[in-house]
Amino acid sequence: MALQCKRVAVGTSGRRAMDVRAQAVASPAPASAPMKTNVAKIAVLGASGYTGAEVVRLTALHPNIKVTVLTGDKQAGKAFSDVFPHLVAATNVPKLVKIDDVNFADVDAVFCCLPHATTQEVIKKLPSDLKVVDLSADFRLKNPATYAEWYGHEHAAVELQKEAVYGLTELYRDQVKSARLLANPGCYPTCSQLGLYPLLKAGLILPEDILIDAKSGVSGAGRSAKESNLYCEIAEGINSYAVGSHRHMPEIEQGLTEAAGKPVTISFTPHLINMSRGMQTTSYVKLAPGVTADQLRSQLASTYEGEPFVRVLPKGVVPHTRHVRGSNYCLMNVFPDRIPGRAIVISVIDNLVKGASGQGLQNLNLMMGWPETTALLQLAMFP
Ligand SMILES: NC(=O)C1=CN([C@@H]2O[C@H](COP(=O)(O)OP(=O)(O)OC[C@H]3O[C@@H](n4cnc5c(N)ncnc54)[C@H](OP(=O)(O)O)[C@@H]3O)[C@@H](O)[C@H]2O)C=CC1
Ligand SMILES: CC(=O)N[C@@H](CCC(=O)OP(=O)(O)O)C(=O)O
């Protein structure tokens, strides 16, 4: 049975947001596993990690979601609040169990917050009608050869790779609504594509010579201890990594190539920054002949007019990661470059929210036929 959707009362002004909500109310959720009640039972796989914990935090006030399963690997067997005391007040949260002990017949949807490669082995064994929002990179690349090239092994579930819908919500909303398996985008691809895709699509910037300088908070690397993420190796510094080889490049190029209608090759360098969460992409782009930076800004403003979570800041105002901390918003702006014929596009997100669990919930809301913004309208913490 599809759920009836309620209207949300705040924060989603504008024509397109109203359209989205009207459609969500009018159209039933696509057929999939039948829902047992009007509250969906959700399993969070990898709940002892950062993005899994963020799913629990964000869904705690969701009227249509009850988290009934949480899994861990090394942390299995523990009470959830032993691992994440900040979520002790989340009501009726179950303890962490192993994935093998989950009865998937008794859940309505799954958030999969596992490492890539492990993910495809787990998802291919799930009931084939179960709705899944996957936060890993496993189902984002459409071409199996590209996956094998960048991830170093053949994909173990090529059929599912074909079925998956890429969930950059603002660009693929209609496909997301009918998705069964949702490939949630990577954090860098979310931040950069939201700024660049509409400009390429409109032919306002040239597909060559796109340089993306990216910065991420350390939570982007996950919770498992890694030498390169130790406080004394991150604090008081800035670390570039995977220079010229980061696996998000083919994901970004896949989207930008679609937008431009011809192959796009980007230059992309990520950096780890001395902060726990937050992400900025600064993209240096070449303008099409006769186009100005102001026109880029106007294009982004009209593309995202009425979007609940993507905002173009007033002219001249610079987006900072602190402006989105803890929220599902993406803020952006465009600036002229001193080099003639070029412009600078800056976007910021919280890597754990719009870059992962928040966008995942935005997508699940659409997949279930609920209002897209449910439980996601929290504004940023500042300072
Ligand atoms: N962090 C971020 O900003 C973003 C992350 N992502 C992606 O989301 C996914 C989760 O990321 P994140 O939460 O940061 O990762 P974490 O490292 O914080 O958490 C990983 C989770 O997976 C569990 N796990 C690890 N290995 C196995 C295994 N072999 N079998 C079963 N469970 C296992 C861990 O359990 P335990 O701890 O109990 O061992 C833990 O719950 C990854 O694919 C990541 O790339 C996507 C966008 C942004
Ligand atoms: C800071 C940091 O290490 N970030 C991660 C990206 C997080 C993410 O989006 O990863 P997935 O593509 O696996 O989902 C990285 O660079 O690998």
Structure summarized in a few sentences:
30% of the residues lie in helices and 19% in strands. The chain is α/β, with parallel strands linked by helices and 383 residues long. The strands form two sheets. It has a seven-stranded parallel sheet with strand order 3-2-1-4-5-7-6. It has a seven-stranded mixed sheet with strand order 9-10-8-11-14-13-12.
Verbal overview:
The chain is an alpha/beta fold and about 375 residues long. The chain folds into 2 domains: about 15-185 and about 355-370, 3-Layer(aba) Sandwich (Rossmann fold), CATH 3.40.50.720; about 190-350, Dihydrodipicolinate Reductase, domain 2. It is about 30% helix and about 20% strand. The chain contains 12 helices and 14 strands. The strands form 2 sheets. Strands 3-2-1-4-5-7-6 form a 7-stranded parallel sheet. Helix 4 links the parallel strand 4 and strand 5 (about 130-135). The longest helix is centred in the C-terminal third of the chain and has 16 residues, at about 355-370. The protein is globular. Residues about 1-30 have low confidence and may be disordered. It binds NADPH dihydro-nicotinamide-adenine-dinucleotide phosphate (NDP) and N-acetyl-L-glutamyl 5-phosphate. N-acetyl-L-glutamyl 5-phosphate (X2W) binds near residues 116, 137, 186, 216 and 272. NADPH dihydro-nicotinamide-adenine-dinucleotide phosphate binds near residues 186 and 222. Belongs to the NAGSA dehydrogenase family. Type 1 subfamily. It is an enzyme of class 1 (oxidoreductase). This is Probable N-acetyl-gamma-glutamyl-phosphate reductase, chloroplastic. Keywords: Amino-acid biosynthesis, Arginine biosynthesis, NADP, Oxidoreductase. GO terms for molecular function: N-acetyl-gamma-glutamyl-phosphate reductase activity; NAD binding; NADP+ binding.
